[in-house]
């Protein structure tokens, strides 16, 4: 274990604080603004709420866990379904995403309470790798069509110039991710977007009119202008979004284990999984209250911690404050809005592919035996339902997003099929 440059509660000097905080802000920036761009929400609000959610998380975890919370990719498909964004002939209502995200935050709180009272082994028995891994694959592959369409088409028609921008973006992100071993390798999404954007400017597919007309400072639009919001709790919204916590809770646990190894702490025990889950849930709930997408702890920032060995929670707090300040920059937010769809599509090809590949890696790392018919059945059903049923419509007004339905079916199959292995070991000891 390498010695920390700055440990958890060590305070950096002013110059260090600014430098290290901006590093973390840049690491999460690309992914955090990409999610709202894909689902029709405000990038400025996503950035603002990422800072707010991170501060809430630090408070709930007693400033013991140096984690940054950004926009969750797991909720892209569910948000598209419940809001109607990008669906022909469907009235768009972003308010549905807010209601769904609040419900997700409440579920996090309930799970946190149960863990506090009963421990967490029951959770591992409900969400074993044979359920979580194929659902993660579904998240990535289910969005693959969206990524390719964004990369190749403009207004429904193939556009070679825009596709070239997507390829340049994709190539740049791959190069930074594979061939660089320093801090640059921790932020391939942001750097890929930057390179793709510069190329787009050179070939003339970027319009700067909005940037020229924007104010230097501007209050983020909590509600998107010109869009009617309706806030109403419905079963369709709850069923469309809440089941995704099956994946995000598993992701959260994995991040806590990895982060604990990086900083040489046992975060499952102190401050406890119940506190970190509650912090995540409250961050998501607070984000939804002001129009932001659901939140999750970010692997990108864990990567920055591992590379720099700067573990100070003051740096994470500084990054959150920087993100909040940047969200009020009217011209910067306007500049973000000029990013061509093709650039976002190019980066999404890599990003969604990595998500799917991480599910495959989970199969390998947990030695899942596909000679076992039980495992084969569970994985097969989850994959086909999740990828094949983009949105399964039961009535005219009631549909379940395929990934959500696949998650529910996977949990049920795991519980009812014979041969289930019961987890008895401590979750932290499993990782040792």
From TrEMBL:
Keywords: Membrane, Transmembrane, Transmembrane helix, Transport. It comes from Solibacillus merdavium. The chain crosses the membrane at residues 41-60, 67-85, 97-116, 123-148, 160-180, 189-211, 231-249, 311-336, 342-364, 376-392, 398-417. It comes from the Bacteria. PANTHER family: PURINE PERMEASE C1399.01C-RELATED. InterPro entries: NCS2, Xan_ur_permease. It is a multi-pass membrane protein. Belongs to the nucleobase:cation symporter-2 (NCS2) (TC 2.A.40) family. The lineage of its organism: Bacteria, Bacillati, Bacillota, Bacilli, Bacillales. It is found in: Membrane. This is Uracil permease. Pfam families: Xan_ur_permease. The keyword Transport applies.
């Amino acid at each position: 274990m390498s010695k920390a440059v700055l440990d958890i509660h060590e305070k950096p000097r002013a110059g260090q604080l600014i430098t290290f905080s901006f590093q973390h802000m840049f690491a999460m920036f690309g992914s955090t603004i990409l999610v709202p761009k894909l689902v029709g929400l405000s990038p400025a609000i996503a950035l603002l709420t990422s800072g707010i959610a991170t501060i809430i998380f630090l408070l709930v975890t007693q400033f013991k866990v140096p984690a940054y919370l950004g926009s969750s990719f797991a909720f892209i498909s569910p948000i598209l379904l419940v809001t109607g964004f990008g669906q022909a002939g469907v009235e768009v209502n972003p308010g549905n995403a807010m209601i769904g995200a609040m419900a997700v935050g409440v579920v996090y709180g309930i799970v946190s309470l149960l863990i506090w009272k009963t421990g967490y082994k029951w959770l591992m028995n409900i969400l074993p790798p044979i359920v979580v891994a194929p659902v993660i694959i579904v998240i990535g592959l289910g969005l693959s069509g969206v990524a390719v369409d964004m990369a190749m088409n403009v207004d429904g028609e193939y556009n070679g110039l825009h596709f070239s921008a997507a390829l340049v973006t994709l190539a740049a992100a791959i190069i930074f991710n594979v061939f660089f071993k320093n801090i640059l390798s921790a932020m391939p999404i942001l750097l890929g977007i930057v390179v793709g954007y510069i190329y787009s400017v050179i070939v003339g597919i970027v319009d700067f009119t909005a940037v020229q007309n924007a104010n230097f400072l501007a209050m983020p639009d909590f509600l998107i202008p010109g869009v009617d919001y309706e806030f109403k709790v419905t079963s369709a919204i709850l069923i469309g979004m809440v089941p995704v916590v099956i994946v995000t809770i598993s992701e959260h646990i994995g991040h806590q284990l990895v982060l604990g190894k990086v900083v040489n702490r046992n975060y499952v025990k102190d401050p406890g999984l119940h506190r970190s889950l509650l912090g995540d849930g409250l961050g998501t709930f607070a984000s939804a209250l002001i129009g932001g997408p659901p939140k999750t702890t970010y692997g990108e920032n864990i990567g920055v911690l591992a590379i720099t060995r700067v573990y100070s929670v003051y740096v994470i707090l500084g990054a959150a404050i920087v993100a909040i300040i940047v969200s009020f920059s009217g011209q910067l937010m306007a500049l973000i809005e000029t990013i061509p769809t093709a650039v976002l599509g190019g980066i999404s090809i890599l990003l969604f592919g990595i998500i799917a590949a991480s599910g495959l890696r989970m199969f390998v790392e947990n030695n899942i035996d596909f000679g076992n018919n039980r495992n084969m059945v569970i994985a097969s059903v989850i994959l086909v339902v999740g990828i094949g049923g983009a949105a399964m419509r039961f009535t005219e007004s009631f549909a379940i997003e395929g990934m959500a339905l696949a998650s529910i079916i996977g949990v049920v199959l795991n519980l009812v099929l014979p041969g289930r292995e019961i987890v008895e070991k401590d979750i932290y000891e499993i990782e040792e």
